[in-house]
Write a structure and sequence with these properties.
heterodimer, A: six-stranded mixed β-sheet, 8 helices, 10 strands, B: mainly alpha
Chain lengths: 278, 577
């Protein structure tokens, strides 16, 4: 586990990030720094701001205030070509897969290459052969190459998420954001998909930030766990330093032993800065 | 008896509370009744003339048999031109409506102003009847096919743009977000994540419009826009009824054949799709999709039917990574090729030079200026009474048509009627719909004489044909589970239909009849041309005496009424239904 990337830059640096939707504060002065190569899990009850946080990292949601710096790019200020260039390097895996159901599996994977090429594309054959071969190779990695020309809405949920992973790999990302990647899957495919995602990310030395709701799953593979509640970071620890019960406290909102002398930050009131390094 | 002991003192409340919605609905119902009665008296409507006029009908029919097909080749030739007109007009409308639809859709528009402009275009194109466009273009370009094509094209942009925009707004947003996240540009994203989702709806909507345009193109011939309607008008004008009925039979066959063809295309192409509207998002399907569902049964089709077998797909050329020719892909390609060939053939057959639109732009502009400023003063009383008459015709025809369409619709719904009733009702509807309203109007003019009553009867029949289909479709979408529950509570069949079928379908029924009112007002302008009275009669007169500025005034009056109906019905739909 490296502290920082070779160039010394953290992959993600979020400072005093606030995002307001109408009356609700989805994110409230969040500070977070993620070193390159780290595998981070974000936990928290629904509505705690997990999805919003991930979406601000690749510019799908603009910050209301505060700064977001991803891979050396100021996401809040980027737009147009600059934003697209950033997104190309940031893979995003969605809970609902985000596949175009009527398109073939291969064409969905090829969509991951759109950032590298110009002009709109219609149909598999409108992509250069080099990219078609690469897409097929990525499908092979997730074990679905035989389904390349099947319509993607005829696949099972777990298979669809694997296609989405192949699409993300097609971008050749440096950072992978995953928003509840296995929440729509049954436990068996959850484990398989998570295992696949993690293995590939390790092979490629990718930084991973994934929001999850299964605590055990997060404990199993994350190097660091961040807890969100009501838009604030309430927990930031290594899984081996913390018990499942303590993690579960994010969901209840109160933590036992909230004494000032506690080594770990406690509750929103602790005004935790997120500057912990591992 | 009070069953809640704790509240023994409270008076039992058996009436539902008067919510704002209930008050609004009651007011709407009361207004409707008042308007129908007022309209009925304005028209001088009665059922009696239908019976006394039966002798006239027999007499008329006697004059038409045997049909005279002596000019058969010529008739078929003109019928083909009519089809070509509809095809080119629809293609033209599609080309114009696609950008309009994308701009008008909330999720793909580039700017709120662009959306506002697109919606204005949609409203204007919808509000001006195609017949009015045809009159203007015939004036500008002379008698021929091109004015008809332009009229169909411009008017259809309204409906196509509206339905396209609805289809775009119904897409699943998740794939779009995902493709954005890969770093794709705006147009790339549109092509990859939006277009594939809307393709089934777009083809279905366009095919549906082609059906409508075929019917309209017959009518447009009446004002000199070429095709078979022109011939029909000539023969009727010189009282050659036997020849005319021959033409009517050709038109009838043409429309039935077209309907069958488009049903087949729809079923093979789109019937296997799950349109985006029913993608399990729990949203109410768009109105357009409900119409379309009534034709292609596309939404009844099981989700993702007939995916190609996995082994066929697994076997592809891995070196070249080319998609295999699955049945679905073959179908899609042959449909696209067929459409292009049909368009090319149509352009050749009608000898339309598309460039002529641009070369004659000056002429069209000059003609338009003739209508301005509109002259409202010369025949003010005629204009007011004509508008009122047409509105009355539309209201009465919609109301009566609705009352008759509900039972017919029930018979045509497969989840209510038994198999034979269902088949008969559906067959009846196809036949009724195949007779253009114009021809119905001619028959009724013969039966009850020139005037509003004839026009009203024609519209009633038209309404039954159109509305029953909508009713039947709405009913087939009713959730079957409550029906079971009501039946097991011991309800009779009639009670069960009333409680668990008609009640849940009621909002859709009201919405559809409001839409019908809008359509009927526009149709009533058309009927005036063959003696159905109302504002259409004035329009016809003013065109004949070349009183352009009066024509302009009539067009604007029509436009305003259509707009008013649209605003009211939109408000009602939004707040009450």
């Amino acid at each position: 586990m490296s502290d920082v990337s070779p160039d010394g830059q953290p992959a993600v640096r979020v400072h005093q990030l606030t995002r307001v939707f109408g009356q609700t504060k989805a994110l409230d002065r969040v500070d977070l720094e993620v070193p390159a190569g780290q595998v981070l899990a974000i936990l928290g009850p629904s509505g705690s701001g997990k999805s919003t946080l991930l979406r601000t990292l690749n510019g799908l949601v603009a910050p209301t205030s505060g700064t977001v710096e991803v891979l050396g790019c100021d996401v809040g200020a980027a737009h147009g070509a600059q934003m697209r260039a950033l997104r190309r390097r940031v893979g995003f895996i969605f809970q609902q897969f985000g596949l175009v159901g009527r398109l073939t599996v291969l064409e969905n994977v090829l969509a991951g290459a759109l950032g590298q090429i110009r002009f709109p594309r219609f149909g598999v054959l409108s992509y250069p052969r080099r990219l078609r071969l690469e897409a097929l190779a990525q499908l092979e990695r997730v074990g679905l190459d035989s389904r390349a020309f099947q319509r993607s809405d005829t696949l099972s949920g777990g298979q669809q998420q694997r296609v989405a992973i192949a699409r993300t790999l097609m971008q050749r990302p440096v950072l992978v954001l995953a928003d509840e990647p296995v929440a729509s899957l049954d436990p068996e495919s959850s484990a398989a998909v998570m295992e696949l995602l993690l293995r590939i990310c390790q092979e490629e030395h990718l930084t991973v930030i994934a929001s999850l709701h299964q605590v055990e799953l997060a404990r199993g593979w994350a190097e660091r766990i961040v807890g969100l509640r009501d838009g604030r970071i309430t927990l930031d620890a290594r899984p081996q330093d913390i018990s499942t019960e303590e993690i579960m406290e994010i969901y209840r909102g109160t933590r036992p032993g909230q004494d000032p002398g506690s080594a770990r930050p406690a509750g929103p009131a602790a005004a935790f800065t997120g500057q912990l390094r591992y | 008896m009070d069953i809640t002991p704790g509240r023994a003192a409270a008076p039992a409340r058996t009436l539902p509370p008067w919510t704002r919605q209930r008050i609004g609905l009651a007011a709407l119902a009361a207004t409707a009744v008042v308007l129908v009665i007022a309209g009925w008296r304005e028209i001088g409507m009665g059922v009696l003339p239908l019976f006394t006029g039966i002798g006239h009908i027999f007499q008329f029919v006697g004059q038409t048999v045997p049909p005279d097909f002596s000019n058969f080749a010529h008739t078929v030739n003109l019928a083909l031109i009519t089809v070509c007109m509809a095809i080119i007009g629809t293609a033209l409308a599609m080309v114009m409506a696609i950008p309009v639809g994308f701009m008008a859709a909330r999720n793909t528009t580039v700017h709120p102003i662009a959306r506002w402009v697109a919606r204005a275009i949609i409203v204007i194109c919808r509000a001006v009847p195609d017949l009015v466009f045809a009159i203007v273009f015939v004036e500008a370009l002379g008698i021929g096919v091109l004015p008809g094509v332009l009229a169909l094209g411009l008017h259809s942009v309204g409906m196509l743009g509206k339905l396209y925009a609805e289809a775009v707004e119904q897409i699943q947003p998740e794939p779009r977000e995902a493709v954005t996240a890969t770093g794709a540009g705006r147009l790339q994203n549109l092509a990859t994540s939006v277009v594939p989702q809307i393709l089934p709806s777009f083809s279905s909507i366009t095919l549906y419009r082609l059906d409508i345009n075929l019917r309209s193109s017959v009518v447009l011939g009446y004002v000199g826009a070429g095709g078979i309607g022109f011939l029909l008008n000539q023969d009727m004008g010189v009282l050659q009824f036997r020849r005319a009925i021959g033409i009517v039979i050709v038109i009838f066959v043409l429309i039935v054949v077209m309907e069958v063809i488009s049903a087949i295309i729809r079923r093979s192409l789109i019937g296997t799709e799950t349109p985006v509207t029913s993608a399990g998002l729990g949203r109410r399907p768009a109105f357009g999709d409900r119409i379309i569902g009534a034709f292609g049964r596309s939404r009844r089709a099981p989700a993702a039917a007939r995916p190609a077998p996995a082994r066929d797909i697994a076997a592809f050329d891995r070196e070249r990574v080319r998609p295999p020719w699955t049945r679905e892909r073959q179908l899609r390609f042959s449909f696209a090729a067929g459409a292009l060939v049909a368009l090319a053939v149509s352009l050749v057959v009608t000898r339309i030079n598309p460039l002529q639109v641009f070369t004659s732009a000056g002429q069209i502009w000059h003609t338009l200026t003739l209508y301005f400023p509109p002259d409202f003063s010369t025949d003010r009383s005629g204009l007011v009474s004509g508008t009122l008459q047409s509105a009355s015709v539309a209201i009465v025809a919609t109301a009566i048509g609705f009352l008759l369409a509900v039972p017919v619709g029930l018979l045509a719904a497969r989840n209510v009627a038994d198999r034979w009733a269902y088949r008969c009702a559906r067959g009846f509807l196809v036949l009724v719909r195949a007779v253009p309203e114009l021809i119905l109007a001619i028959v009724f003019v013969v039966a009850v004489g020139l005037g509003l009553v004839a026009g009203t009867f024609a519209l009633i029949v038209g309404t039954i044909g159109f509305m029953s289909k909508l009713v039947a479709d709405g009913i087939e979408e009713v959730d079957p589970r409550p029906r079971e529950a009501v039946l097991s509570a011991g309800a009779s069949r009639l009670q069960e239909t009333a409680t668990s079928v008609l009640r849940p379908a009621a909002p859709a029924l009201v919405g559809n009849s409001l839409y019908m009112l809008d359509v009927n007002f526009r149709s009533s302008t058309v009927l005036g041309i063959v003696g159905g009275g109302g504002i259409g009669f004035l329009l016809q007169q003013s065109v004949q005496v070349l009183a352009y500025r009066t024509t302009g005034a009539i067009i604007i009056a029509t436009f305003c009424v259509v707009l008013l109906i649209e605003v009211i019905t939109n408000w009602v739909r939004k707040h009450l239904i």
